[in-house]
Amino acid sequence: MKKITLLIIVLMISTIVFASKTDDYVRSSYTNEYNGNYQVALTNMLAASHLEPNNAFFNLRIGWLYISLGNYQDATTYYAKSYEIDSNFDALQGLLTSYYYLGDWDNTIKTANKVLLVIPKDYLAISKIAYSYYAKGNYAESAKYYGTGYEIYTYNLDAMGYYLSALVESNQLSDAKKIFTKLRKLSPDNQFVKTYESKFK
Hints:
Layout: H1 2-34, H2 38-51, H3 56-68, H4 72-86, H5 89-102, H6 105-118, H7 123-135, H8 139-152, H9 157-169, H10 173-186, H11 191-196
């Protein structure tokens, strides 16, 4: 009986020490991030995650710190791990951002479509799909998504320019002329207006 009691006490102390060490790493990570020391913040968070590898939030936070350091490839690894643990929406958005900045258009589209299953009119997801199709040269699909985004944010001039371009390049000239006319009025020196003005004179 004494041996069992002693074992329980040892396990309790180990758990407390373990939790305390994790807390220290997490606190240090936040402090260093606040002070702009992202690499140190990441190192601390990796240490905390090593102690609790199945903690979805720790993996999520590591993904964020990798993004803060401009390391989008490693960010995808930890966001994917976080999403695998509990399918959290934060990780899905992190994956979307990472794939987009990597120029991984297929995974951007795939991930953005998962976002749209949760929030059907998520503008960032829609705009990232639109640009991904544009970058892949699939202008008809790009125009479709830019059109959807246009219905949500009518005065996003940058997106309107890409919408115009996607319409022109997919030979939807009637719709393109309407967007061109509006964009020229709102932003006469817009690069897309200059590019296509000879087509709509």
